Amino acid sequence: MVSSSDSRSSTAKRTATGRMDSARMFVATRNAAVIGYFSLTMGSVRRVQAPAKLVRGMPAHPVGMVLLARLAVERSQQGTGVGASLLAEALRRAVAAGEVASARLIVVDAINEGAAAFYEKYGFVRAPENRLRYYRRMKDVRASLD
């Protein structure tokens, strides 16, 4: 089960409020234990920072994006599909947010090369300026969810 931090403990609520609603955290639980989470926030990226094939034909101004700010799985749950399920839910929510806020890209910063391989497996493209930053076009994500 994935739920928003809005319905989590008062500590989580204070943390989210204290950060001025800069991101939303979603938590996956099993038998009342946290097994993973992800966090999303909105932003923009300069066109020259994104892979050329993803921004071809776009105007020269910054491109709206949804940042997958965090995605983590409890160690004992790694390799069981929890990460893939969390990513799928994060992408669904990113598409919904992107439709409201006009985001064209989804961006993630992989924590290490293992995480980078995970994102590549799901269609993310490495950024030219940072070997651990990955992009995916919103329209491609939307098509994969249909």
From TrEMBL:
One Pfam family, short name: Acetyltransf_7
Per UniProt, what is one GO molecular function of this protein?
acyltransferase activity, transferring groups other than amino-acyl groups
**InterPro entries the UniProt entry points to:** Acyl_CoA_acyltransferase, GNAT_dom
By its UniProt entry, which SUPFAM superfamilies does this protein fall under?
A: Acyl-CoA N-acyltransferases (Nat) (SSF55729)
Reactions listed under catalytic activity: glycyl-tRNA(Gly) + acetyl-CoA = N-acetylglycyl-tRNA(Gly) + CoA + H(+)
Q: Where is the N-acetyltransferase domain?
A: 1-146
**Keyword vocabulary terms for this entry:** Acyltransferase, Repressor, Toxin-antitoxin system, Transferase
Is Cell membrane among the key words of this record? no
UniProt-recorded name of the protein: N-acetyltransferase
